[in-house]
Amino acid sequence: MPGLDDAFWNHLDDRIAATLVRAPRRRRSQQASPSLVPMSRPPLADEAPSDRHEVADWTGLVETISAAGAAAQVQDERLRERNAAYDTLASDLSRALADVERYKALVARAEAQVEAKSREIQALAEARIKSIQARADARVQRAEERAQAADRRVIVVEEWLSSIEEASRHLIPMQRQPIAKAS
Asked: Taking the model in full, what pTM does it have?
């Protein structure tokens, strides 16, 4: 980003040059390699006023360095504020992440409890169904046994009735028909 740095320094030079009337306005070169700047010496008493131009250039350089230092301090302060904001956000995010993990654990625990309760209810329901089915089967079995016993009694009663009818035929004269036959 040499263009950005050059623009910054050119802007800074313009600001400083605007504040200093005696400093010459100079532009930084756009070249990638820095050029050597000739060193100036302090003015001597016997030098002409035109040579004092070099002293003003040194003063501009000092002011440029001071302005750059102030700009660096401002930028450093901004970076500190931004870093503090990032640290706050990072701590908020870590707390939120911890909350999410805690909620995940709670949800997993709740799901496990629901699953266990579901299995328990299903086991109770199956046991109850088996119990009801066993009672129903026992009732059906008793009912079938009673029906079979009733069928056997009917057969026995029919045999008795037929033997009673046979016996009654021999006892009653032929003119009269037995009651059992009429029905």
From this structure: 0.39
